[in-house]
Write a structure and sequence with these properties.
By secondary structure, the protein is an alpha/beta fold. The chain folds into two domains: 16-247, TIM Barrel; 257-323. 41% of the residues lie in helices and 13% in strands. Strand 1, helix 1 (28-38) and strand 2 form a beta-alpha-beta unit. Helix 8 crosses helix 10 (239-247).
Length: 339
C-alpha cells in the first residue's frame, strides 16, 4: 500500500516541528498553552490504552474534539492486542484526527512489562503483524510510529526499520535512546541518521532537543525531516517559535522572566485546578517548575528552593522573587541537565 500525505505544515519552507506526547502532560489544556506561545506543526495525544476492555478515554479524546489550536492532532495508541488495536483504530478514525500513531517507545517499566510501548521492540514479529493489520485499515490518513532505537540494546533496530518501510508507515518519530536508557545517557543521533537513510517516510528526530541551537545541530547531523520536542517544551514553551527563528537565520527574540511568570499563571488555570486539593495543586505546578527552573538561574538556587516549598503561596512567592524582582531574560539553553 502506498503512503498517505502528511497534513500540510503551516511553515512549508521549514523542517517539521512536533510536540512529543507525554502522558499526564500533553492534554488539551497544555496544547492550548503551547499554542499561545508558538505552536509546533503537529500535536500528538497522550496514549489511548488499548486492551480487551478499553474504551476511548474521554479526557484524551477532548484533545482532539475540542482542540482549537489550528494544528493537526495525531491520536496515539498503546497496546499489543491486534483485534483491540484494530477496533480502537476504527473508533479513532471516526474523529477528525491527523493520523493514527502507535507507541513503541514508552520506557516506563509498568508499561513495557506488559509488552506494550517500548516492550514491543523485543518482538519484531509482533510489530510486523500489528503494522500489517493497522495499515490495512488506515488508508485515508497517515499511520505513524513513535519508537526508540531498541529495548536494552539496538539488536532489533534495523529489522524494525525494515518492517516500518515494508508497511509504508507515513511518519517515524525516533527517540535516539533505548527503552532501558530511559532519559539518561547520550542520544544516538547517528542511529537517527541511519533511520533517515533506511526508511522511505519522513523521520522526526527526538531526544534531548533542549534549544533552538540543538535543534539545528540535530537536523544537520541526522538529515531528519524535523524535530520532536518533549520535556524541553515544558521548560520553554517558546522553543518551537525559537527553532523557526533560528532556521530562518533570524535573531531569537529574548523572553523576559516576567513572561515566564505569566506562563506559570497560565499553567495554573487548568480547568480542573479549582477541584484539586491544595497539596495536589502544588505537586502539579512543581512537575512543570522542575523543568522551567533549569532556564531561570545558573546557580540552581530557584530549583533547590522551589523543591522545598510546601504551599502554593510559598511557591508563588518564590516565583515572584526570582521572576519579577530583576529585569533578566529566560536562558536560551538549560543551565544544567534535567535530573
Amino acid at each position: 500500500m502506498s503512503q498517505v500525505s502528511l497534513p500540510q505544515s503551516p511553515h512549508p519552507d521549514l523542517p517539521l516541528t512536533a510536540l512529543a506526547p507525554m502522558q499526564d502532560v500533553t492534554n488539551l489544556w497544555f496544547m492550548k498553552v503551547i499554542a499561545h506561545y508558538g505552536s509546533p506543526d503537529y500535536f500528538f495525544t497522550e496514549y489511548f490504552r488499548v486492551n480487551d476492555t478499553s474504551r476511548l478515554n474521554r479526557r484524551i479524546l477532548a484533545s482532539i474534539t475540542e482542540n482549537d489550536t489550528g494544528r493537526p492532532v495525531f491520536a496515539q495508541m498503546i497496546g499489543e492486542s491486534i483485534p483491540d488495536l484494530v477496533r480502537t483504530t476504527k473508533e479513532l478514525c471516526r474523529y477528525n484526527i491527523a493520523g493514527v500513531d502507535l507507541n513503541m517507545g514508552c520506557p516506563a517499566p509498568r508499561v513495557y512489562r506488559k509488552n506494550v510501548g517500548g516492550g514491543l521492540l523485543r518482538e519484531p514479529e509482533k510489530v510486523e503483524r500489528i503494522l500489517a493489520e493497522l495499515r490495512s485499515i488506515v488508508n485515508d490518513r497517515p499511520l505513524t510510529v513513535k519508537m526508540r532505537v531498541g529495548f536494552d540494546n539496538t539488536d532489533t533496530f534495523y529489522e524494525i526499520l525494515d518492517i516500518i518501510a515494508r508497511h509504508s508507515i507515513d511518519l517515524l518519530s525516533l527517540h535516539g535512546r533505548t527503552v532501558k536508557d530511559m532519559y539518561h545517557g547520550e542520544v544516538k543521533y547517528d542511529l537517527i541518521a541511519e533511520a533517515v537513510k533506511r526508511v522511505d517516510c519522513p523521520v522526526l528526530a527526538n531526544g534531548n532537543i533542549n534549544s533552538a541551537t540543538t535543534a539545528l545541530e540535530v537536523l544537520a547531523q541526522t538529515g531528519a525531516a524535523g524535530v520532536m520536542v518533549g520535556r524541553w517544551a515544558i521548560a520553554n514553551p517558546w522553543i518551537f517559535q525559537q527553532i523557526r527563528q533560528a532556521l530562518r537565520g533570524e535573531p531569537i527574540i529574548p523572553v523576559p522572566l516576567v513572561e515566564v511568570r505569566n506562563y506559570i499563571d497560565r499553567l495554573r488555570q487548568t480547568p480542573n485546578s479549582a477541584a484539586m486539593p491544595a497539596r495536589a495543586r502544588v505537586g502539579y505546578l512543581k512537575r512543570f517548575l522542575n523543568y522551567i527552573a533549569l532556564l531561570v538561574d545558573s546557580e540552581g538556587h530557584f530549583l533547590r528552593l522551589m523543591r522545598k516549598t510546601q504551599t502554593e503561596v510559598e511557591l508563588l512567592n518564590l516565583c515572584d522573587c526570582f521572576l519579577l524582582a530583576e529585569n533578566k531574560n529566560f536562558a536560551l539553553a538549560p543551565y544544567s541537565r534535567i535530573k
